[in-house]
Design goal:
two-stranded antiparallel ribbon, about 90 residues, alpha+beta
Length: about 90
């Protein structure tokens, strides 16, 4: 959380996500990856992904963070959700 927050602040973007909100995101997503729908485990850990990337002025806020597995997060890169042509079948509002 610290490095993500620092990155957003350096870009003069809002950085308000906290641990409680991150846990809420995981609950809202039923502890599953938005991209591939696999359930997170000790082996398949969630990563924080910006729905709108920092490079496109997306802040580090609850509304702009989703949980993806590392594989989906890597394939998404710095694309926004509309530009990501992975297996995205999201349930959160973008």
């Amino acid at each position: 959380i610290y490095s993500q927050k620092r990155r957003a602040l350096k870009a003069n973007l809002p950085a308000t996500l906290n641990v409680v909100e991150w846990k809420q995101i995981l609950l809202e997503q039923n502890n599953t990856c938005i991209g591939c729908k696999r359930t997170f485990t000790e082996v398949l850990k969630p990563t924080q992904d910006h729905i709108v990337p920092v490079t496109k002025q997306g802040g580090y806020t609850k509304e702009n963070i989703q949980a993806l597995c590392q594989s989906c997060n890597s394939s998404k890169g710095n694309k926004d959700m509309s530009g990501w042509v992975g297996d995205y079948r999201g349930t959160r509002e973008v």
